[in-house]
Amino acid sequence: GEITYPNGEKALFDLFYLEKDWARLEQKKEAEYVLFGSHGRRGWKRLLAEKGTTEETLKGTELAEEYQFNIYENNLFDYDKQRLEIYYEGEVLFGDIEAYIIRLAGFSYGEEMYYISKKTYRPIMKQVYIFHRRSQSVINYTIKDYIKIQGVLLPKLVGIEKNGSTKMMEFYTYDFSTKFDKNFFKN
Fold first, then answer.
1. Of the candidates 130, 161, 156, 133, which has an alpha carbon nearest to the alpha carbon of residue 143?
2. Span 60-100, pLDDT tens digits
3. Dihedral sign for Cα atoms in the order 86, 130, 164, 169
4. Residue 21 has pLDDT above 80, yes or no
5. 20 to 30 A Cα–Cα from 21, which one of 1, 61, 98, 187?
6. How far apart are CA 93 and CA 181, in angstroms?
7. Side-chain half-sphere exposure of 171, counting CA atoms within 13 A
8. 3-state secondary structure the chain
9. pTM of the entire structure?
10. Nearest in space to 1 (alpha carbons), one of 131, 158, 177, 184
11. What are the Cα distances from residue 98, in Å, to 101, 120, 129, 143, 156?
């Protein structure tokens, strides 16, 4: 797909998953290449640009924030397998859209709130609360459109906002048939 930043800059991206704990996001801008990868409680971010390569290791809160800012997941599908707690928090009106509010608790980093359209039963917004020792950060997602792939509706346009930094991810397509080796996620 393609990521659009508020300044109009665009980046092509490829997002890969392997099982639950492996993720890799590659962003290709005009003059740089960014790789974010994670496995469980470990993550890394690598920037390759004309001025050189930088790499950082991510753990704890830094990893949770970077992961959530780069990867949208709907954890409602397997909350029971993840042993998460689910709560009905009420209803809200967004303009002319009525939505249910569902909270998931039990994540190592915090909680998630889902706003589900009463008309379509699809998420229209998600908020991730990452708890620090004495504070919290919030990452907001807005799901603006869906695409149907192999009979399944998946997010097509996802806006992601964290600390005033916003980006729009447009997914062109999804491929469920590609096989990966775990080493692909470590590089």
1. 156
2. 888 988 889 888 889 998 999 999 999 999 999 988 999 99
3. negative
4. no
5. 1
6. 45
7. 23
8. CEEECCCCCEEEEEEEEECCCEEEEEEECCCEEEEEEEECCEEEEEEEECCEEEEEEECHHHHHHHHHHHCCCCCCCCCCCCCCEEEEEEEEEECCEEEEEEEEECCCCEEEEEEEECCCCCEEEEEEEEECCCCEEEEEEEEEEEEEECCEEEEEEEEEEECCEEEEEECCCCCCCCCCCHHHHHC
9. 0.88
10. 158
11. 10, 10, 22, 15, 21
Cα 44 from Cα 66, distance rounded (Å)? 9
Which burial class, exposed, middle or buried, applies to 78 when counting CB atoms under 10 A from its CB (0-12, 13-18, 19+)?
exposed
Tokens for 37? 């990868």
